[in-house]
DNA sequence: CGTCAGGTAGCCA
DNA sequence: TGGCTACCTGAC
């Protein structure tokens, strides 16, 4: 019998499949998850997680199980729109990713569908990552900082124009540089990220929210923008700056969780 | 065939 | 500051 954790509320399915994280494979109700050089198996039955190949403490950190989700959901439950999303997806949590893996993954995501993003990241790992044997299969770890320094290899992963971003970023910042941002105020950290070539507000916020514990970060992509415009701004054209002001006032310090719920809700219930 | 996809930099008014 | 377009590439 594999090790287990009893936890509530938590939805492994929604947490993994809501688009914040790319390196997992689904087998029925169970998943193989990869992050950095780790590979583990996990599945949920009712309020219990069964897992293999990873420490329980890592799962608590990765899935933010130490966090009082009910409290956070009460904090962001400010209107009838998000209330529906919370009702439907309660248990969905942010994933605390590695900052380097997170930044690079979202650099690859620009103007690509989720399927394509996964292919590019997989190729990136195959080309630059460590080979790992696990349960008689070959897997690849995530490339470490400074390792993506061969332009020709980078061309071969199918990243298109994003390859140049990867190449530049690989030289400009490493994991410690990213972790150091945690000490800064949100706006300062965001400014440093957007100064990196290929990183705009959206990718900066993804990195801050999904890996650096800035829960007030609210990544604005085309889907969330359309949804906010339609449901919160009566269809008016809005600028990102207006959205950011409204969001931080309306949802407060856990706005990032609001983004997670609204985004997933609108993806599954297109308007 | 065109158009579009979970964005961004560069250019111009 | 604000609005537009090219950027690689594969999927429809």
The class by helix and strand makeup works out as: alpha+beta
Total DSSP helices: 14
Helix amount, in percent?
Answer: 40-55%
What kind of oligomer do you see?
A: single chain
Strand % is 5-15%
Uncertain segments are none
Largest sheet: 5 strands, antiparallel
Form type: globular
Task: Report the C-alpha radius of gyration, rounded.
Answer: 18 Å
Strand order of the largest sheet: 1-5-4-3-2
- What would the average pLDDT be, to the nearest integer? 95
Strand-and-helix sequence, N→C?
EHEEEEHHHHHEEHHHHHHHH
Number of strands: 7
Q: Alpha-carbon distance between the termini?
A: 44 Å
List descriptors.
about 270 residues; alpha+beta; 14 helices; about 50% helix; DNA-binding
Would you kindly provide a written description of the structure presented here, covering whatever features stand out?
The protein is an alpha+beta fold. The longest helix has 15 residues. Helix 5 packs antiparallel against helix 11 and helix 10 packs across helix 11. The strands form two sheets. A five-stranded antiparallel sheet has the order 1-5-4-3-2. Strands 6-7 form a two-stranded antiparallel sheet. The model has no long low-confidence stretch (mean pLDDT 95). Strand 2 and strand 3 form a beta hairpin. The protein has 14 helices and seven strands. It binds a DNA duplex (13 and 12 nucleotides) through helix 6, helix 8, helix 11 and helix 12.
């Amino acid at each position: 019998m594999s090790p287990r954790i009893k936890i509530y509320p938590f939805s492994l399915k929604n947490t993994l499949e809501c688009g914040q994280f790319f390196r997992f494979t689904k087998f029925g109700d169970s998943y193989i998850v990869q992050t950095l050089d780790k590979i583990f198996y996990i599945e949920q039955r009712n309020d219990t997680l069964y897992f293999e190949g990873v420490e329980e403490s890592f799962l608590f950190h990765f899935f933010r199980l130490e966090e009082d989700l009910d409290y956070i959901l009460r904090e962001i439950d400010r209107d009838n729109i998000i209330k529906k999303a919370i009702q439907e997806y309660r248990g969905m949590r942010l994933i605390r990713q590695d900052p380097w893996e997170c930044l690079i993954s979202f650099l690859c995501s620009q103007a690509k569908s989720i399927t394509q993003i996964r292919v590019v990241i997989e190729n990136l790992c195959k080309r630059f990552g460590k080979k790992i044997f696990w349960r008689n299969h070959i897997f690849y770890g995530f490339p470490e900082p400074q390792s993506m320094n061969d332009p020709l290899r980078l061309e071969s992963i199918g990243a298109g124009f994003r390859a140049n971003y990867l190449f530049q970023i690989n030289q400009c910042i490493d994991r410690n540089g990213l972790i150091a941002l945690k000490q800064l105020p949100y706006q300062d950290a965001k400014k440093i990220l957007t100064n990196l070539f290929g990183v705009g507000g959206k990718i900066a916020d993804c990195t801050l929210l999904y890996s650096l514990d800035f829960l007030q970060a609210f990544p604005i992509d085309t889907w969330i923008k359309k949804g906010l415009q339609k449901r919160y701004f009566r269809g008016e054209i809005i600028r990102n700056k207006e959205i950011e002001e409204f969001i931080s006032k309306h949802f407060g310090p856990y706005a990032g969780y609001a983004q997670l719920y609204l985004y997933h809700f609108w993806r599954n219930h297109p308007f």
